Amino acid sequence: MNIIDKSKLIKNHELTALENVESYLKTIKNKNNKINAFLEVKEDEAIQQAEKIDKRIKKGEKVGKLAGLAIGVKTNINIEDFIISAASKTLENYNGSYNATVIDRIKAEDGIILGTTNMDEFAAGSSTETSYFGVTDNPAAPGRIPGGSSGGSAAAIAAEMCDLSLGSDTGGSIRNPASHCGVMGFKSTYGVVSRQGLLDLAMSLEQIGPFANDASGIALMLDSIVGYDPRECTSLKDTPSFEGITENTQDIMKGMKLGVVKEFFDVSDDKISKIVEERIDKMAEMGAEVVELSFKYLDLCIPTYYLINYVEFFSATRKYDGRKYGYRIEEVCGDEVLRRIHIGSYISQKEYSGKYYKKALQARSLIRREITGLLDGVDALISPTVPKLPHKLGESLDPMDMYAYDVLTVIANLAGIPAGSMKAGEIDGIPVGLQIQGKPLDDAKIIQLMAGIEQIQ
After folding, report:
1. Residue-range definition of the domain harbouring residue 4
2. CA Rg, the chain, in Å?
3. Rounded CA gap, 437 and 375, in Å?
4. Which of 172, 169, 131 is closest to 37 using CA atoms?
5. What whole-number distance in Å separates Cα of residue 15 and Cα of residue 215?
6. Which residues neighbour 64 within 8 Å (Cβ) at sequence distance 6 or greater?
7. CA–CA separation, 9 vs 17, rounded Å?
């Protein structure tokens, strides 16, 4: 049963919201001690909300798109009266005093927020191992990382602890864990989802986005949270519609032109490339035209992304000075956060900004121009999401090896384009993700493609 079908059952009172929520709360109690996907759960509030929704449905009153569905939220997205820690000791006692725009929109559609999910500290990581509150295990590949930085949100879906969840994606932080946990994750065109209320890592790159087990869930969540927000300066006035886009997608491949970039496969492990290539062959059998392309600036992407990330992260963390709330970040944060602060501080100095930061911005413009140029001739680009399998929990990686997870995902953030990840297959029981990237504001088309790929046997 997909999310849309479950939503219809709840609205028809064939499955009550209370039954749905209590089932997930039971799963969280049974599994979360081992997996550590949720950091805070408000059981009583979730049950009360479910009971209210059931009463309204019983009376024949209209309810929202998300009525009765259980939702987890990454702990860097503000929710009133929840601890919004960004998985850092810096904010371990920070109680959210307001709702982010996406939270207000979820509540307006009667979504039931179960709790907050684990992440890399201040979203600085690709493994959810840097959290002050402990690592998150991968339900789809126990003993391995779930990816990051939104690892808790992905693990919550993979462990069937909720219907939908929210993460944030700066350079792959939704798509990376979606790949490792074998679920779906989506990053919209920059500006489609409001960032108001997000404790951001790098404001020019980051977007809030959904996780689900199927494309209908991704579409339903996006249809609930997208839209112009006058309180948020990056918010776009014209945004895509997602209502009904995953219905009748069995012929979606016919007439689709899909780009396959050679370099994206060259940097990926052979076994991963093989699984994704097999999926592409199936898509061709269903009527898609596959076009081979080349992108000669892949080596530029990681350094460009991280130079911009360091500077914007350093700037964003200056408000965590321990005066109004929390602790001074440099005094309590982990090694990776401190590394990014120090490098960002160094690059931000006047004598170095031209040498590093301004050149990174120039490289970003080049990457954006080249990737949008490739997309001009095709409907989407298909590739592996992550070039290597998730490492074992506790395995020591140097920073450059950790950053290498991001080589295929940072492009969408640098270019501001939509991108999704979904399961393509497995290697020795470990999920492998397939990434789909599209033109700006072609978000709905990407999700339709994901729905079409779901049907491939």
Report:
1. 1-457
2. 21
3. 9
4. 131
5. 21
6. 108, 109, 110, 111, 224
7. 10
The one-letter amino acid code at 226 reads: V
Report, as an integer, the average pLDDT of 280-296: 97
Distance (Å, rounded) from C-alpha 79 to C-alpha 113?
9
Spatial strand order in the sheet of 184-187:
38-41, 112-117, 70-74, 164-169, 207-212, 184-187, 419-427, 430-437, 380-384, 257-261, 289-293
Amino acid occupying residue 240: P
Q: What is the pLDDT of residue 351?
A: 81
pLDDT digits (tens, 9 = 90+) for 30-83: 999 999 999 999 999 999 999 999 999 999 999 999 999 999 999 999 999 999
> What total of structural domains would you count in the chain?
1
Q: What distance, in Å, lies between the first and last C-alpha atoms of the chain?
A: 17
In this structure, what DSSP letter does residue 97 have?
Answer: -
CATH label of the domain that carries residue 10: 3.90.1300.10
Q: What CA dihedral angle connects 404, 409, 414 and 415, to 10 degrees?
A: 150
pLDDT at 200: 85
170: Cβ–Cβ under 8 A, 6 or more apart, which residues? Answer: 123, 149, 200, 201, 202, 205, 206, 309, 413
Q: What is the DSSP letter of 203?
A: T
Q: pLDDT above 70 covers what percent of the chain?
A: 100
Per-residue pLDDT tens over the stretch 80-133: 999 999 999 999 999 999 999 999 999 999 999 999 999 999 999 999 999 999
Instruction: Tell me how far CA of residue 344 lies from CA of 148, 169, 314, 319, 369, in angstroms.
Output: 21, 20, 5, 15, 26
* Average per-residue pLDDT for the chain: 97
What residues are annotated to the active site? 74, 149, 173
Distance of CA 372 to the CA centre of its chain: 22
Query: Each residue of 258-277: pLDDT tens digit?
Result: 999 999 999 999 999 999 99
Distance, in Å, from the CA atom of 284 to the CA atom of 435, rounded to the nearest integer, reads: 16
For residue 438 the two structure tokens come to 């599209």
- For residue 91, the 8-state DSSP code is G
Instruction: Using CB atoms within 10 Å of the CB of residue 92, give its burial: 0 to 12 exposed, 13 to 18 middle, 19+ buried.
Output: middle
CA 196 – CA 393 distance, rounded (Å): 33
pLDDT tens, position by position, 323-355: 999 999 999 999 999 999 999 999 999 888 888
Of 59, 25, 70, nearest to 44 by C-alpha is 25
